[in-house]
Amino acid sequence: MQAKKSYGQHFLKNESIAARIAASLQCAARTGRVLEVGPGMGMLTKHLLADTSYETYAVEADRDMADYLQQHYPEWTPAHLILQDFLEFDPASVFEDREFCLIGNFPYNISTQIIFKMLDYRDRIPEMVGMFQKEVADRIVSPPGSKVYGITSVLTQAFYRAERLFTLEPGSFSPPPKVQSAVIRLTRKEQIELGCDEKMFRKVVKMAFNQRRKMLRNTLKPFFPAEQLMEDPFFQKRPETLGWEDFVRLVNSIPS
């Protein structure tokens, strides 16, 4: 299988940090399977493979990196080392309908897309541990009221409990990035259904935050009658003050 794309990446070079990231997984032994995204030269991979309580798989878009990993980890079968772009990867092709945990030093330019793909497969991914640009990590874990709370925060926190584990300085990577990095853990909630129309939920959240400085009565005009928008004090709020549950209630209150 030939990879179609390659993404720029800063490779982790700190052994103790790699071991700490691998050890941050809590559900791996229960699922029995871990998928690493963008393993590169295997700094994190070696620590995952050392734990025999689960099987380690990896999806790598760069053929040179995949060849390097195959040479250094010959015990890996083609089924375990997948030469493919993760954003185009179908988990069912390897895991069928079984659960697996997600982990990686994610390429920063596609890290948000990785989160959105994880949400699409949330029924199979009970846990994710990942390295992100600190700014992106902050957006994912921040609660309502924060200046960086936004679309990614709401959509992720609707299905996962988000926690920041630790931050890293640029010197932990090669080449050093120009930004700080942070490792976070997402643990799936027991209830993975919203209780409202999910497509409409995403649409309302995105529309509200596209003009985050404006009150809801100004941004949600396509969904509600003018009288309701003006009379209900709830619509005087701004989107960054609302939790994901508030958005669910909003969606369920849209007139049919």
Low-confidence stretches: 1-6
Which sequence of SSEs, written as H and E, runs from N to C? EHHEHEHEHEHEHHEEEHHHH
Mean pLDDT: 93
- Give the beta-strand count: 9
Q: How many helical elements? A: 12
Give me the CATH superfamily of the largest domain: Vaccinia Virus protein VP39
Fold-level CATH name of the largest domain: Rossmann fold
Main beta sheet, described?
7 strands, mixed
Structural class: alpha/beta
List the quaternary state of the chains: single chain
Helix content: 25-40%
Total domain count: 2
3D structure, described in words:
- This protein is α/β, with parallel strands linked by helices.
- It folds into two domains: about 10-190, Vaccinia Virus protein VP39 (Rossmann fold, 3-Layer(aba) Sandwich), CATH 3.40.50; about 200-250, Helicase, Ruva Protein, domain 3 (Orthogonal Bundle), CATH 1.10.8.
- The chain is about 35% helix and about 20% strand.
- It is built from twelve helices and nine strands.
- The strands form two sheets. A seven-stranded mixed beta sheet has the order 4-3-2-5-6-9-7. A two-stranded antiparallel sheet has the order 1-8.
- α3 (about 45-50) links the parallel β2 (about 35) and β3 (about 55-60).
- α9 (about 200-210) packs across α12 (about 245-250).
- It starts with 10 loop residues before the first strand and ends with a helix.
- Mean pLDDT is about 95; it is low at about 1-5.
